[in-house]
Each structure stands twice: as C-alpha cells, then as structure tokens.
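Dear colleagues,

I hope this message finds you well. In preparation for our joint manuscript, I am sending the Pyridine nucleotide-disulfide oxidoreductase domain-containing protein 2 (Turnix velox) sequence together with its predicted structure, so that both groups work from identical material. I would be grateful if you could confirm receipt.
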Amino acid sequence: LLGQILDQWFESEPLKATLATDAVIGAMTSPHTPGSGYVLLHHVMGELEGRRGAWGYVAGGMGALSQAIACAAAARGAHIFTEKAVCHVLLSKDRRAQGVVLQDGTEVRSKLVLSNASPQMTFLELIPQEKLPKDFVQQIRQVDTRSPVTKINVAVDRLPSFLAAPNTRDGQPLPHHQCSIHLNCEGTHLLHQAFTEATLGHPSSRPMIELCIPSALDPGLAPQGCHVVSLFTQYTPATLAGGWSWDEQARNAYADTVFDCIEAYAPGFKASVIGRDILTPPDLERIFGLPGGNIFHGAMSLDQLYFTRPVPSYSGYRSPIPGLYLCGSGAHPGGGVMGAAGRNAAQVALKDFRQL
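The corresponding structure tokens are as follows:
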C-alpha cells in the first residue's frame, strides 16, 4: 500500500498527499489500494537531463515532441503520413501481417507492422476476430481500462494569484508558477474520499487537481500577458450513476466544481478565464482512441504489468499475428512520456526482421 510506504518515510500529511497524487494519477485507485505504490515508482523512475526522477515541459508544447520524433525518423528515411486513418491490418493467406489498409482503400504493404494504438484498438478493431485465438481475444476484452481522468485546458488573461503566495506587482511568473501545483491534496483522506465518490458513479465533489502553467516557462504558448493552464483532474467515472451520460451540462457542471476549488486557493481565477476545453473519459476515448479514456491504454495495476502486459504470454511485443507488434502504452512497461515500450518493441521487431 502506498499509504504504508509514505508513513514510513514522512510525517507531513500535505507532503504525503502531494506525493500520493503520483501514485493515483491516471488510475482508478486510492492511496489505500494495494499496488498503488508501484504507480508512484513508475512516475519517479528515470531521469531528465541527468536529474533522477525529474519531469519537465516540452518547449513548444507536447506536439513539439511528436515533431522531433518525426524529424528524426524522416532523417533516417521514414515516410510519414498523417490524417490517414487505418481501417485494418492486411493479412496474408498464412495469417501474417503484410501491411495496412487505409479507410480510402489504399493498401500500404510492409514486412512488419508496429501498432502504437491500444491493445483493444489493435486486436479488437483492426484484426478480424476469427484470425486470433479465442482465449487471447477474451483476455484483451477483460483488460481493465477504467479511467478517472478529466483533462481541462484553460486560457486565462493573467497568472493565477494564490493566497499562499500572491503575485508580485509586475505580474511575472514566480517559482511556483513554473512547477506542478497540487490542489485539494492536503491529506490522503481527501484523495480516498474523491476516489470513493467516483466508484459510486459520481464525479468527485472535491477533485484532485494537478495544475500546470507551461506558458510560465514557454511564453510562446500564449499571447503576451496571457497564459495556458493545464488541469489534470480526477476522479470522474466514465459512466455516471443512474445511467446519465457526460453531456454538455454534466461536463460544465464538473468543470465549474473544479474552478470553484481553484478559486478558493486563488481568488480571481474564474474571472481570468477566457476559454476552456473539457475532456471527460468518454471524450478522451473518442478523440484520442484511449480505451475508457485511460491515458495508459490500461490500468497500471499489479495484475496488468510486466509479463502480464497486455496479457500473459504476449508481453514481449509480439502478437498472435506474425509480423504484428504492439509498441504503445499497452505494452511493457506501460504509459508515460518515455518511449520505453516503443524502443523495446523496435529492437524485437528488428531482430525478427533480420531473420526473414
């Protein structure tokens, strides 16, 4: 249990609760859920520019990271096509992957196919079910993809001024504006309470909020004097109690709750908002293809990690379809902006390619 680990090392409840957010981030779990300690480890492993456990902003926004990867691939001779939806994986008569078919009917032939889509998308939508072992299909269907996350992107006309550390007269970013700010995290019991509400089908009345202001470090993301605020919030169930859906009214009601919470820490925040984009779990699934809205393509629980990710017997990036590999967050070691799954999958695919 994460709670036991934190109690062993720390005394301050606000500090323990702040650290606990990295153990439940993106997970429909409580700090008191068995196995939650691993998710904390997952978020602090690795390093950034030599600093162990550090995280950072990508200059130019997260899209700049995709562009950097694309440029590196193109420099090696890769051809990149965007806005070309894949309809299904092309299979040979002996059931081997030999390319993909686009929605417009175009066939793209290749000796190997690596899928960065989720296991559910890859094997339940892009491959005919009769071409896969029945037990494998059943295991993929049973992967836990519950997500508690609602992401809210906000445009504001001034920096939030927090009661704990008010802004200076010049309105310039202070050190805390350049970090992750955790709200409603004064105690682990608050996180557990928020989790409990979501398990009953209700959005948290006092949600966990991780607030970042990337434009405080990267001014080019917003017009002068304005800022973009990224709110990573939970817990919000994908399916609401009573059969209610996440319609526009429900989205805005939850966002208003989040903004009310921020207002209590930073009076004037609501008045500074000039635009907002609300992405509930169903929105994250529909727009980005995340199963259940899960940012990790599947829960990072102990039963879905290591040799069982995505399912037992297929944790080595290969699949029941020869020539088809899984290289996204649904493969080992899971989610996060680190590229480990892709790098590992590429090494396995290259090894097989040399033996063709």
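For the figure legend, we might mention the following. The two ends are 46 Å apart (CA to CA). DSSP finds eleven helices and twelve strands in the chain.

With kind regards,
E.M.
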